[in-house]
Amino acid sequence: MKGQNERARELTRFWLSKPASSRQHFWDAIRQHAKVKAIREKETESMIITRTPLRISFFGGGTDYPVWYREFGGSVLSTTIDKCCYITCRRLPPFFEYHSRVSYSKVENVGQNSAIQHPSVRGCLQFLGVEEGVEIHHVADLPARTGLGTSSAFTVGLLLGLYALREQMRNKKALASDAIHVEQEILKEAVGSQDQINAAYGGFNRLNFHTDGGFEVKQVIIPGARLAALQQHLALFFTGFSRTASEIAKEQIKATQHRKRELESMRQMVDEAEAIITDPNRSLDEFGNLLQESWQIKRTLTQNITNSNLDEIYEAGRSAGALGGKLLGAGGGGFMLFFVHPERRKQLRMRLKNLLCVPFSFSNRGSHVVVHEPDEIYDQSLTEERCEVYSQQPSIQPS
Question: Is 10 a member of any domain?
Answer without folding.
Answer: no
